[in-house]
């Protein structure tokens, strides 16, 4: 059975500092949900609250309707890869996983299975202290998958991986979601999230600012633009500005135009007898959309971009 993650009116104070501020969102099974936010916005804290490593000041974080600490054998429901997870450097990969398996009465045959799944079977007898960052991440994923859980909570799993490792992790997360699992993953790498995530939860200063698909976030961005190369950039820029657009020179014959469509720019150039060499709509990247969203003022943050009905689940 698959479980969703449901965060409701979550607040967390550290001393008198409010770090998580009335945060609510839902993560559904069968999807990779990216958890985005600037440094210090509260992603790791939220994940720690979900898995009971810290207590909320108020509000709830439920997995399949119950708190993590109420789960009887948690590794069978939730697999985690959190930054803080430490592995004893003197222990072999196999023994590390075997120890974890024994704490939850998971058969040792599963240890071999997950080692094979993450590509560490050949080095499973080696001490983890000699492992590269990529190998340690794979070992962390193996530990997360040990109990064949329906929910995976992964904090920055891609950070520090080489291109092969990123490709492997991306496909693994998609595969796990296709199997019907709930995959909740934080990342700083917007390009990766655009390729991997079906849904996004975006926070800033501990508050929800968007719960939507990557495409919806990009559509919200005001950074969409048109790249124009022409025979007279300076004159075209003047006309564009007089018509309500903005035009920034990229170099002597190219402009980046905002707030006017490519169609309109073409018409204006024709009216002015300016030759157009190139006219290309530029879709904002997820990174640009994210920058736009996280630089909105507080008033606009009071109206988060929630385009999915799961954001309105019952309290
Ligand atoms: N145990 C703690 N005691 C006091 N403050 C804390 C504690 N843990 C986190 N914080 C503060 O809470 C805020 C959110 O931190 P958190 O690590 O959750 O953010 P993050 O979004 O995961 O950041 P990053 O992307 O840089 O990892 C930060 O201001 C951090 O300093």
UniProtKB/TrEMBL annotation:
Residues 5-230 form the ABC transporter domain. PROSITE patterns: ABC_TRANSPORTER_1, ABC_TRANSPORTER_2. The keyword Flavoprotein does not apply. It holds the Pfam family ABC_tran. Keywords: ATP-binding, Nucleotide-binding, Transport. InterPro entries: AAA+_ATPase, ABC_transporter-like_ATP-bd, ABC_transporter-like_CS, P-loop_NTPase. Belongs to the ABC transporter superfamily. PANTHER family: ABC TRANSPORTER, ATP-BINDING PROTEIN (PTHR43335:SF4). This is ATP-binding cassette domain-containing protein.
